[in-house]
Predict the structure.
Amino acid sequence: MGSSIQKAIELILSADPELLNILATTARVCLTSSILALVIGVPLGILFGAERFPGRRVLLVLNRTLIGMPPVVCGLLFYMLFSGVGPFRHLHLLFTVKLMILAQVVLITPIIIGIMETFVADTAPALRETARGLGFGRIKEYRLLINECLYSIFSAYLLSFARAIAEVGAVAMVGGAIAWKTNVMTTAIMMYTNRGSFTLGIALGLILLTLSLLVNVVLSLMQGRLSR
Amino acid sequence: MKKTVSLLLALVMIFALCACGQAAAPVATEAPAPAEAPAEEPAPAEEPAAEADALVVDTCILKEADDAMINNYSLLAVNPEAPWVDADGNPVSDVTINTVGAAALINWLLSEEGQDLAANYGFDQYGEYLFYLKDGRPVSTAEIPAATEETRIIRLSTTTSVNDSGLLGYLLPIFEEKYGYEVEVYSAGTGKSIANAKMGNADLILVHSKKQEEAFIEEGFSCVLDGMDTERLNWMYNYFVLCGPSADPAGVKDAADVKAAFQAIADGKFPFISRGDGSGTHTKELSLWPEDLGITAEAESFKDYTDWYISANTGMGACLVMAEEMGAYILTDKATFLTFVANDGVMG
């Protein structure tokens, strides 16, 4: 462990261009995918939680199933669809960062929908009563609800970011871990481990954990300010 | 208030991390020293060069340069007119393959410049050549066109050994710089590399399993390039080596040939690490076991041998680490093994 930590620090200090490229790709993939998932997932989650409509329960069960989808299955699916012989071959997306983001959005969105749905389903009835009592219209009622949700939106985002940065199965399948192009932290760790360089793998793992810690500290600070 | 506390906490954790690193550093550099002494003593009694470096690594080469152990590397261009089928077996007609780019890379690798570079690779670093050029190899004098917008990206699907030994990382930048191409390397075991090409995701493959290459050609997935005689351009080779603990409990070193060595390992039930991942090395290993054992790629075939036959299903380097830990025998390509030893048992 000791030599790994030393190696991690050396790696960061040396500003190795390949490491910087891996870090940049990682940041691009997991920030974009988690934000996209947030944009899609939050409205859907609030809708599922606040409204009652036919088919809602079926959709919720489907969503919960998707939460449990193994990343490699998602990766394999995208690999088949976007392969040179797959139905979407003309888009030429296999082994690109774009497809990695897309695969992660598919993985993460259900988690955000799930979290938001649980929270809203719990809060909405009481809130609705208050809103009606105050004589609010529908739009104002929703604004109040969203205001109430901000804290859990942050929680949902933290969780989805964590999932995106830690995920390896899907990005390895659809990205192919191509150096200087689609290699991210997790696939690089896997690659080094396969080669037998465990020390370098752990060093990268430590950098990944530290980055995750920093992002979480910043977001938690923002979240803390929000709750006051 | 809350904010300052959190910030302080974060800083403390970062400092703790740095402090751990510094505190642990001297321990890490000292640690291998005592281990060197016992390993050094038996070493001189055995083989010379390889072991002199192997101060920390106990695993050593026991059997090499046997004709059955030649490891042939071949280049195959992917045929754009191949009988492509999708996952359901329906024919697909318009698969995009960059044949011009594939031909450019192949012609360069087979040119005088490319061949010289490959043949001399690794000597400075390891004091041994890692790859040898084959007699009667295909040679190219074709002019290599500069990259255009359509042909710029070349997708190379290849085996881990040429990538992990650093050969591609050494050759490709020279080619890219000179002609303006960009080579995207997809590196996996030979089985997976070929499967990737069959899905239309590669323009050429560089692999080392004759049987699987011939099947690939048979199915029509490869084509003959202009100026070449065959699909399978076999220009480079090195040796597989049988490695194991320096004590050699199975007596592999004294075996008449490599097949007898594998027989001895099986008879004595000494631990053996198999790649188990459909790679070229795995295919080679399967062909070396005594036939009556019936070991194949199927898990069913070695279920009675699990007390000594370990199917690791991982990369060459990770398998070598495993063999070192367990004192097991292992079949590996020489290039990866030399890299492993040069880095004291961890792959660089």
